[in-house]
Amino acid sequence: MAFHQITLTINGETEIIEVPSNMTLLQMLREKVVLTGTKNGCAAGECGACTVMLNGEPVNSCLVLAVECDGAQITTVEGLAQNNHLSPIQEAIVAHGGVQCGFCTPGVLISAQALLNRNPQPTDHEIRDALVGNLCRCTGYLRIIEAVKEAAKQHAVTV
Ligand code: FES
Ligand code: FES
Fold first, then answer.
1. Domain-by-domain residue ranges, the chain?
2. Ligand 1 centroid vs 59 CA: distance in angstroms?
3. 135 CA from centroid of ligand 2 (Å)
4. Ligand 1 atom closest to 43 (CA)
5. Average pLDDT of the residues of the chain
6. For position 1, what pLDDT does the model report?
7. The architecture CATH gives domain 3-79
């Protein structure tokens, strides 16, 4: 097995990490960096629980090799809160009851934040489209969608 040294930025911190060729970004985050907020639901690109931002775009980290992330910027759910304060989308998902077991929540939050970053005032259709890859067995989705709408409103107030 070949090993590679990669340098990348994770939640604003520069990291130099040695990874085997076949290690996924998901495995690297959970096992090497010990950021376990990102979840392994299916390891096959089906559930969205492993969603992180790779250079600002949401990706299924179970489908990305760590070695491909040399030089990249990664944002995980741990990077959303700032100065010990939950972000607007985190506050909103709690307030709207969009979290039950919580297994999908890190991926949902990252997909939602990526949407709000590129489109601060999304339509209902755009919200549903952005979250189509994030499966949730608990909330029925409406509460999650309401939370994204609320976070967009907050953004509109604060911008
Ligand atoms: S764990 Fe990556 S999509 Fe399910
Ligand atoms: S809150 Fe349980 S899977 Fe979404």
1. 3-79, 88-158
2. 10
3. 8
4. 1
5. 96
6. 85
7. Roll (3.10)
* pLDDT of 159 higher than 60: no
CATH number of the structural domain 88-158: 1.10.150.120
Tokens 């489209």 belong to residue: 129
User: What whole-number distance in Å separates Cα of residue 130 and Cα of residue 122?
Assistant: 10
CB 151 within 8 A of CB 88: yes
Q: Above 70 in pLDDT, residue 158?
A: no
| CA 37–ligand 1 middle distance (angstroms) | 13
Q: Do domains 3-79 and 88-158 have the same CATH topology?
A: no
Q: Could you say which ligand is closest to the alpha carbon of residue 106? A: 2
Number of Cβ atoms within 10 Å of the Cβ of 1: 6
pLDDT at 13 over 80: yes
Ligand 2 and 139: CB distance under 6 A:
yes
If one compares 1 and 137, the residue with the highest pLDDT of the two is 137
**122-154 residue pLDDT tens:** 999 999 999 999 999 998 899 999 999 999 998
β-strand partners of 52 = 59
Which residue, 40, 45, 23, is CA-closest to 32? 23
Å from CA of 118 to ligand 2 middle: 25
Taking the CA of residue 63 as reference, the ligand 1 atom at the shortest distance is 2
Q: Average the pLDDT over 3-24 and give the result.
A: 98
